[in-house]
Amino acid sequence: DEYNIISKIIYFILKEEIFKKIEIKSLHPITFPNPLIPLLIRTIFDKILENLSTLFSTNKKIQKIKDKSSELSSMGMQTFPEMEQKGLRKTFIPGLFFEILELIVNELISERPENLFFLKCKRFFESPIIVDDYDKLLTSVLENIIIGLEKDFNEINSIKEARSLFNQLSRHGMVSLRIQNVFKNFERYHRFEKLKKK
């Protein structure tokens, strides 16, 4: 009994310290060795917002989210033209970005409650994750937003542009959980084939 009590205490301490839900507002700015990554993410994000503003033009909350997103530039998450103009080389993703992204997900679910990809985005925010996996959280949410928009509005060119930009992230090492699982399964398959040949 004493062993079980100690085990439970250790479990809850570890759960609190290691597996904790990201607190969006208090999240420190996230830096990347490759300065292109925040720029690409900002461009994808702007494309998504541009689409939502057009598709759901009567939704006042989306318009407010768009206004709020203009703060990202002043917080260091630049667009490509801004970086070229100011000659900045250090780029990062502020905690505000995750807060705005969650607001977008909530509005997408409000507009398209039957879209499973948008619902999946919400689960990413609600599930406890290891804090070091924030990059996978980010790419997974962006990927599911794009897939969800492709499902409902696949004829819109700017959604295709967002997809093309997202595909560039993988080439820069930003891989979503879905893509990571594909790679893992691919590696497992090849290991299994090698074992069969021995």
What does this structure look like?
The structure is a single chain. This protein is mostly helical and 198 residues long. The chain has one domain (23-197). The protein is 71% helix and 4% strand. The protein has 10 helices and 4 strands. It has helices at residues 2-17, 36-55, 60-69, 71-74, 80-86, 95-111, 116-126, 134-153, 157-171, 177-197, and strands at residues 19-20, 30-31, 92-93, 129-130. Helix 2 (36-55) packs antiparallel against helix 9 (157-171), helix 7 (116-126) packs antiparallel against helix 8 and helix 8 runs antiparallel to helix 9 (157-171). The longest helix is centred in the last third of the chain and has 21 residues, at 177-197. The termini are far apart.
Quick synopsis:
By secondary structure, the chain is mainly α. The chain has helices at residues 2-17, 36-55, 60-69, 71-74, 80-86, 95-111, 116-126, 134-153, 157-171, 177-197; strands spanning 19-20, 30-31, 92-93, 129-130.
Which tags fit this structure?
198 residues, mainly alpha, two-stranded antiparallel ribbon, 4 strands, 71% helix
The end-to-end span amounts to 48 Å
- How many domains? The number is 1
* Major beta-sheet overview: 2 strands, antiparallel
Radius of gyration: 19 Å
Strands ordered across the widest β-sheet:
1-4
Unreliable stretches (pLDDT < 50, length at least 5) are 17-26, 181-190
Summing up helix and strand content along with how strands pair, one would put the structural category as mainly alpha
**Proportion of beta-strand residues:** under 5%
* Rounded average pLDDT: 74
Order of helices and strands: HEEHHHHEHHEHHH
- Bin the helical content: over 70%
| CA-based shape | globular
Work out the helix count: 10
* Tally of strands: 4
